[in-house]
Design a protein that fits this description.
The protein is α/β, with parallel strands linked by helices. The chain contains 16 helices and 22 strands. A six-stranded parallel sheet has the order 3-2-1-4-5-6, sandwiched between helices. Strands 14-13-12-15-16-17 form a six-stranded parallel sheet, with helices on both faces. α5 links the parallel β5 and β6. α1 runs parallel beside α14 and α6 packs across α9.
Length: 446
């Protein structure tokens, strides 16, 4: 497949790195120094030029492109680039990364608007990612499969968790939950029954949404369940607005702090269940008067990484149980989580994963990434050619490499608990955890 990527920022680079081994990738970047960097670090062709110009796209071979991805930081540039590419090659599938939902709304009203086949909105995806982890105590990441019937979540286990020093067999007391992996010191371990869960481990589980929620409450019993959680959102940015809107849809009444008078007034009108407070969120006196320290979760969505880090550290000092920060620079996420932020969400990483999920899905119905590149959780529909069809799981896994866990099955829209004697039928949807090192071998058999 011939793929043209316009924009070599963190998003473009991440996508190119994932596609370079199996596809012919061309990157268009107007920063010569940045283009040179990728020439040496990736197996791709780079062109230094403006990706929205006809001549540049022709040089990149867009007339023979199967896919064109516009991933710059400028919405208008991405829209123009996709429109131009579609005019030059109508058969190319175009994907545009945009930040603001106003373009997304226009695109959704008219299929193929702007010459774009798929529009991926950074701000909305970031808000959705934040809201998924807000409802799960101790969760660092979460995703859903099989039309919401299966949930994958990654949890951090602290020293006081009830399952610390237990074996997986001892901790596995949930009817429809599978322990898929333990992440420890940068390594991925597919757990056996006698594997011991230690403090600071990260555990990946797959199961029904109810069982995952029960597991979350078990490992962090001191945290409030979602339906009664008190959430404070700092910053009335578009991300902050969508976080509050999505929380309202779940029946919550968050509080939102916004400094700008006009923006606060607009938000108050558009978010009927949200209490909007106009103030500087770094004012300790204000935070104390409003009892922000009593909140279960604080989400900071301000316009800089430094401000978001400061807000989360202030919240921790006041007694907030859990903090979530938007982190623009992906490389800062680990640093934020090391110094005291519970969850760092990178908009660039979120949108890169979404685009990569689409470009690499192949026969998979859905894909989620674990620790960016260490493993994947995929959903596949079983056909007659699958190595799993017509076999019990204990027999089927013999044909699969180590590093694969069958996490869940849905059949005719119903959740099926995967146990050793569970037979997999043609037409079943299987959700599996797969280490990256055996991904290609496994997907061929699935």
């Amino acid at each position: 497949m011939h793929v043209v990527i316009i924009g070599a920022g963190q998003v473009g680079e991440s996508i190119a790195a994932d596609l370079q081994h199996d596809h012919d990738v061309v990157i268009v970047e107007n920063d010569a120094e940045r283009a040179d960097e990728l020439t040496y670090s990736l197996d791709v062709l780079t062109i230094t030029a403006d990706g929205s110009e006809v001549e540049t796209l022709e040089e990149a071979g867009v007339d023979n492109a199967d896919m064109v991805l516009a991933t710059t930081d400028d919405d208008e540039t991405n829209i123009v680039a996709c429109s131009t590419a579609k005019a030059l090659c109508n058969s190319a599938f175009t994907i545009a990364r945009i930040k603001h939902t106003k373009y997304l709304r226009t695109w959704k009203r008219e299929a193929g608007a702007f010459g774009i086949d798929l529009m991926v909105c950074t701000n909305l995806l970031t808000a959705e990612s934040i809201v998924r982890v807000v409802g799960l105590p101790a969760a660092r990441d979460s995703d859903v499969f099989a039309d919401g019937r299966v949930q994958m979540a990654e949890f951090e286990i602290d020293e006081e968790s009830p399952i610390v020093d237990q074996t997986v067999e001892e901790a596995d007391r949930f009817d429809s939950l599978t322990f898929a992996a333990i992440l420890r010191d940068g390594d991925v371990e597919v757990p056996r029954g006698d594997a011991c869960i230690q403090a600071d481990d990260r555990v990946v589980v797959i199961g029904s949404p109810r069982s995952v929620q029960t597991f979350a409450r078990t490992i962090a019993p001191e945290e409030s369940p979602e339906e009664s959680a008190e959430v404070v959102v700092i910053g009335g940015s578009e991300v902050g607005y969508h976080v509050c809107r999505l929380l309202e849809e779940r029946g919550l009444s968050p509080r939102l702090v916004e400094r700008d008078h006009d923006r606060a007034r607009t938000l108050a009108e558009e978010l009927p269940r949200t209490v909007v407070m106009e103030s500087d969120a770094t004012d300790m006196g204000f935070l104390e008067r409003e009892h922000v320290g009593d909140a279960d979760i604080l989400v900071s969505t301000l316009d800089s990484d430094e401000k978001n880090l400061l807000e989360c550290l202030l919240a921790r000092r006041l007694g907030v149980k859990r903090t979530v920060a938007v982190v623009d620079r992906t490389s800062y996420v680990d640093l934020f989580e090391t110094v005291g932020v519970d969850v760092g969400v990178s908009p660039r990483e979120v949108v890169a994963e979404e685009i990569t999920r689409f470009t690499q899905s192949g026969s998979a119905e859905n894909i989620a990434f674990i620790e960016s590149d260490k493993a994947e959780v995929i959903e596949v529909e079983i056909d007659e050619a699958s190595a799993l069809a017509g076999k019990a799981i204990r027999d089927a896994v013999v044909d699969l490499p180590d590093g694969v866990v069958i996490g869940a099955i849905t059949r005719n829209g119903e959740f099926v608990v995967p146990r050793g004697d569970t037979e997999i039928h043609t037409g079943d949807h299987v959700v599996a955890f797969i280490e990256t090192s055996v991904l290609e071998e496994t997907t061929e058999k699935l």
